[in-house]
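User: Hi! Is it possible to get a structure for several chains at once, not just one? Here's what I have:
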Amino acid sequence: MGLQKKIKIGIDEAGRWPWFWPVVAACFCLNPEKIPSKEFISKLQDSKKLTSKQREKIFSQIVTLANEEIPSIFFGIGVVDNFVIDSINIRQANKEAMRRALLEILRKINQDDIDSVVIDGKDNYSFDELKKKPLYIIWWDAKVAEIAWASIIAKVFRDKIIDTYACLYPKMSLENHKWYGTKKHNDFLETKANISSFHRLTYAPVKKILEHKPKLLLHVCCWPDATIPIVTLKEKYDIICFWYDPNIHPKSEYDRRLKAFKKVCEIEKIPYIEGEYDIKTFFSKIKGFEKCKEKWERCQKCYDFRLEKTAFLASELNINYWTTSLTISPHKDIKKIFEIGEKYNLENIKSQFLAFDFRKDNGFVKSVEYTKKNNIYRQNYCGCMYSENFLWNGKEG
Ligand code: SF4
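Assistant: Yes, the chains can be modeled jointly so their relative placement is included. Here is the combined structure:
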């Protein structure tokens, strides 16, 4: 154009903070050889006070002026999608959007005619494509009109892109929030099924929903038996341990096992609930079956009253699932334990029993190794005063 460095380019972006879809940057400059009407320029300078309708009107005027045979303005647009934002972070993606916008405008003007390039913000990017470093201005609106115009282009263009996607997600009320992180947006994303392929997955609220795990109440019959269930389940569930074992005798042994349980919960950072030591309930539940052999009626009643308590507690606390570490021990009747769990699933209980066989893949052997390695107390009898008579020839229970 042969001008004497009269061109000032303003750059701004839209969509840095939303949780969805692209960041858009725009560059804007006037053609010093064909300045638009004063009336039009004065409208643009007041951009901050514009309604969205007024912004749209000016946007279409900008497009018209930029497409005249001799344009009175020039602009460039840069769009960077959510996948790039997730892989390089929003700051770098924003720079890339600005770079793309600059590349477009630099094809329309002569770089030697540029007097200055002014950007809103304090990111302090520099661009290899520019011969000089841009100036950064905060609170641009009263100072650099070119940034205000760039801002109108970026914002309206991004809104138009978003409106195109609104038809896919009618429940989102996009017209109101344009995918910004409003409460309504957050409520809509409540489950990960509502996260679209246009969401920025690295943004904290979206990430949190993706990583959300269902809650599970794990009945712990003793700490050593709970180690492998915890290791197995914690990847997939948000575990809360429930210590409920009034069957353990004597009280000093109960306290010893409880202490070991609490210590490891603290180390593993697993929350726990401590049930009551209501040994009278245990005696009343097994009454008449005291002399039964291990695994038979006494033990089945002993499983049942502890699992019943767990099922109702999970339901009361609105915990999605519950299960028990009892299934890891080779001395327990796993089939009976599953039957009891299923029985509570058929009752009107909100929480669901999950039947895990923790003996699989050498679960019991691994639990023994775990306790040895971490120097955790391991008992040598099941728990009740009757089991003392059934010591398993030195084997651990
Ligand atoms: S042996 Fe174990 S499972 Fe059986 S009643 Fe005693 S404490 Fe309960």
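Residues 145-166 form the longest helix (22 residues). The pocket of iron/sulfur cluster is lined by residues 247, 294, 298-299, 302, 382-384, 386-387 (CB under 6 Å).

User: Great, thank you!
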